[in-house]
Amino acid sequence: HFKDPKRLYCKNGGFFLRIHPDGRVDGVREKSDPHIKLQL
To answer: Which keywords, in A-to-Z order, does the entry hold (predicted)?
Structure first.
């Protein structure tokens, strides 16, 4: 079972971890980006 989607946030840089469908990973400051919600 998955809980509600989570966002991983870096307090130091002010970025959310974003994982693209092709596997690329970067950071973004926009809370509304659909690729920052993770099923953990």
So the answer is: Growth factor
